[in-house]
Structures are given as C-alpha cells and as structure tokens.
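Sequence, structure tokens quoted for completeness.
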Amino acid sequence: MKELDDLLRACGRASGPVVLATVVAVSGSSYRRPGARMLMGADGWLAGGVSGGCLEGDLVRKAFFWTSDGPRVLRYDTTGDAAEDEGGLSFALGCNGVVDILLERWEPGPGDALGFAAEARKQSLRAVVATVYRGPEDAVGSRLMLREDGVSEGNLKGALLEPVRAAATEALVRGVPWSGACGGAEVLVEVVEPAPPVVVFGSGFDVAPVVSRAQGLGWHLTVVADRPVELLRRRFPGAQAHVASRASEVLEKVPLSARSVVLVMTHSLPQDRELLERLVPLPVRYLGVLGPRARTERILRELARTPTAEQLEKLHAPMGLDLGAEGADEIALSIIAEVQAVLAGRDGGRLRERQAPIHAEAIAPERRSA
C-alpha cells in the first residue's frame, strides 16, 4: 500500500518520459506477485520494484527502447534452465519462476491506473483495475477500472469490454485478484483495498512505535485518548487523526466498521473495562488488548453481557505474536506483525514450516470453474 504512495510521489517529481512496469503474471516462485509496479525515468531513476532487485537493472537499461512502439510484455525466466528466445530473457537465479512484466509509457492524468487507485484509497473504497496484457494488439495495455461506489473509468472497448467488466465486477465483490484468460485475452485483475483503518486507544509512550510502524506500512492511524487534541498531535505526528474522547463517548466520536483494527493500550483497568463493554459487540476486523491474559479475562467476566464465541474469536488478548518481545519497540513489532497476519488470513507461523506456497495462487474464473 505504501508503494502506491511512493510511486505517486516519484511521478510528481519526474520530468520527461516515464515507463511503468507492472508484474502481470507469475508462474512458479517469484519475489513479487502480479500487481507489483515500478516507475522508471529516462535519466535512470526508479521507484517501486518488480522483483527482489534481480530484474530492475535490466529493465531500467532497456525499458525506453522496448516501449518506443507501444506497450510490450517481457517474460523473465528465473529458473536458469531456459534459453533466451524472442520476447523472453533467462536469468540463472534458481528462483524457479517465470515472470511476465508489462512495460508501457505512462503519464499521470484522467483515467490512469495509479491515480484511480490512489483516489479510491483516499475515499476508503475498494477498487478493481483490470489490465489487458495479451490479446489483440490494439488492446494490450487497455484498462477497465471500477470502484465500489459505482465509478467506472478506462479505455477498454470492443468485444473484450463486457467479459472483462463481468470479471472485474466479480473481483470487486469477492475481493480476490487474479491473472489469466478472459474473453479471448489475458488480463490482470487487481483488487485495491483501502488502507486498513487502525484505531489506537491510549496515549502512553508505547503507542508511538505502534503508530510509527503502522504508518510505514501505509495504514490509516487514529489515536484516541482522554487528552487534548493538540497534545495528541504533538505526541503522535504520524497519525492521520487524533480524537479527544472519554471511553464512554467513543462510539459517538470514532467511526468503526467491519474493516477496523482496534488496539486498546490505555494501561487503565477502568478505561479498558468501559472500552471493551462497547467494543466487544462490534463486528470489527481485529480487537486487541494490551496486558496479561488474566487481566483481560477479569474484564470480560465483569462485562454486562457475556461475549459470544464469535466475539471472542476476533479478540486478541494479549495482542501480538510470540516473538519474545521486550520493550516498546519490540512489542510494537509483535502487535503489527499479528495484525498483518490477521489481515492476510494467516496464522503468523514460521515460513519454513509452511507446507503450502508462500503466496496463494490467484486463479482466473475460467480456471476455477474448470
């Protein structure tokens, strides 16, 4: 998410032509997945990335030549087993993957994919960007973009428009990106999620590293405490919003939704009790409480209503992964790591013990129904 912001800042400083590189398809193992992007300037600057650093140098050297006649898809074979052929390059990296990258001249303006995605995030709306990367020559690089409030943009037309629109609409509803066959072409369908809204209750010194780490990931931070707003702004400048509120007033002053991540860090037993009385029944995405398990269990026993099993499932107390964390910075790392795992639908275990691929394959609808 932060990468999108970095790309937009970079293009704002650019002078002269710019090439946009987008990973559109991956077979096997790859450091980056479809949707990863990099911007390149004619004078050699770049922002973003499409690999772990293996492919960027080659792209920067050749991207402007390759796009002189229009968009082009390059295939990079990183298995080290394939010979170079037309339209493909072999790198003896041993990564066991094949990566397709769409290169196109790019400039900001109405209908561009980066601007559309950024505006959707600004309005906290899910969006979909569908890009044709193989098919009729005049369609390569064409896009259809949808937003969950009904806004639609793009330059895709002709026979591909309706099948791509149907696929993009399905992705908008399901929130599942994919890359593959669609209507006689190959299409990358990206889902752009709004920045996770993270609400932190508390104003202690240990809140600052949580705000800092979440900000570095591009998350939207709101700090809430029974303190003057100006004090909160000075103490937590990295947060996007600061709310002065008593625990009894939070539901009126702080908007929460099914996407919200809520962190309770007040270090006050009465405040936590009053906050959990109001927060536990809400269908938020994640609810975490700082402090020992026994402390939270005591609070839960004292609530007016006994929490249901479903409510307890989203409650993380003590919050954070078991990293052996000591001190505010390490505890913040533990908390942010667990939130990221929950947002990604993972359990936060060791990758070496994971039997499935690190990245879940995004399967095109035509293949899912086969």
Observations:
- Residues 130 and 189 are 4 Å apart (CA to CA).
- The chain has three domains: 1-107, 108-194, 197-351.
